[in-house]
Design goal:
It is built from ten helices and 17 strands. The chain is an alpha/beta fold. The strands form three sheets. The protein has an eight-stranded mixed beta sheet, sandwiched between helices. It is globular.
Length: 363
């Protein structure tokens, strides 16, 4: 049964067991009556959470639900930002449903969404920043959205069908979609979705435009901040209007990016820009474990931007590479909902404290 209203879950390092998220996902899947489409970047579960999700998917298929799954298969991505996926092919096979790998070369299939009964009045979307791994559900900051909207579900299905039928990232998402109203406890939310890479350049400019027009507050939460339009807008923020700003990023990943920029002649200009932003604006940063095969994944992984009464969230990092990946961004307009997202970012800001100038990790 479709939830009566938009639902949110925030995840935080050490704050919840993996079984909580597994239970929410199993419940969402368990309500499917006709179809399930799953697009997931990283899928590697173990223990009770693996069993709970497997049972939910198998149960849906057993009662006649048509289930399809796509996942990213790039194990040789040349840089550790974002960290490469480690999808468990044996686990995926054990689900017993049609599954299709999508090559992550040259750009990633970076979605994390589930579509339930998309072609029915009860259509609903599960989306956000959260992969299906035990670490994602216990050691990372993440956000999950459950959107009861047949119209949005159909728009996501269009994206899924492109990826499923072609197996290609680079030809997906080349269309504009109309805003939709989604019920929420504090009044309707005006929701609109964009998909990259088809609208990747537009997405970066949407973020920059919203931030540049801020009048009261800006809250940012992203593993990295590398998109040129967003960096430029942040560099100019508060030059004309004083705005309440706070941000949180992954200090370890951002330091790796800075190292890459310094040897890339096309990106060296970004180093002083980000350094100035980190020195001038209030940012906090989480020191995380550098990626290595088998290492813990404790990244600051949430992707949220709040500007006044608008939220932008989904799978898209504030990154240049995100413009070319298969990503989804949902814009949500509702003052009360924006307050909830802003409070989460403020909490993370307080937890991880001010970032050093330049975003460098501690010695």
């Amino acid at each position: 049964m479709t939830p009566a209203a938009l639902e949110l879950s925030f995840l935080e390092d050490g704050a919840q067991p993996a079984e909580r998220t597994a239970g929410e996902l199993a419940s969402f899947i368990g309500a499917a009556q006709q179809t399930l489409e799953i697009a997931i970047y990283d899928l590697k579960l173990a223990g009770a959470p693996a069993d709970m999700v497997r049972d939910a998917i198998r149960g849906a298929a057993a009662r006649g639900v048509a289930v399809r799954l796509i996942y990213n298969v790039d194990f040789a991505y040349p840089i550790p930002v974002p960290p490469p996926p480690e999808c468990d092919s044996a686990y995926i096979d054990s689900l017993g449903v049609p599954a299709r790998p999508i090559s992550g070369v040259p750009s990633l299939m970076h979605h994390k969404y589930v579509l339930r009964d998309a072609a029915t009045p009860d259509g609903a979307v599960w989306t956000g920043s959260t992969n299906w791994t035990n670490d994602s559900w216990t050691r990372e900051e993440n956000v999950i959205l459950r959107l009861p909207s047949a119209a949005l579900a159909l728009e996501y299905r269009r994206n899924f069908e492109e990826l499923w039928s072609t197996g290609r990232v680079d030809t997906s998402g080349r269309y504009d979609l109309a805003p939709q109203d989604v019920p929420y406890a504090a009044g309707n939310v005006r929701a609109r979705v964009w998909f990259s890479p088809g609208r990747g350049r537009q997405i970066a400019h949407v973020f920059a435009d919203r931030i540049g027009r801020a009048r009261q507050r800006v809250r940012l939460c992203s593993p990295v901040i590398t998109a040129g339009p967003i960096l430029g807008t942040l560099a100019e923020l508060n030059t004309r209007h004083p705005v309440d700003v706070k941000g949180v990023y992954d200090r370890t990943q951002m330091a790796e990016v800075l190292s890459q920029w310094r040897v890339d002649p096309h990106a060296t200009w970004k180093v002083p820009v980000f350094t100035a932003i980190a020195a001038r604006l209030p940012f906090a940063s989480k020191v995380t474990t550098p990626y290595a095969p088998g290492s813990v994944h404790d990244y600051m992984h949430a992707k949220i931007t709040v500007v006044d009464d608008v939220v932008l969230t989904g799978s898209y990092n504030l990154s240049h590479s995100g413009e070319d990946n298969a990503e989804n961004v949902v814009e949500l307009k509702n003052a009360a909902l924006a307050d909830v997202f802003a409070q989460f970012i403020d909490h993370l800001f307080d937890r991880y404290g001010p970032a050093p100038a330049g975003g460098q990790p501690p010695k």
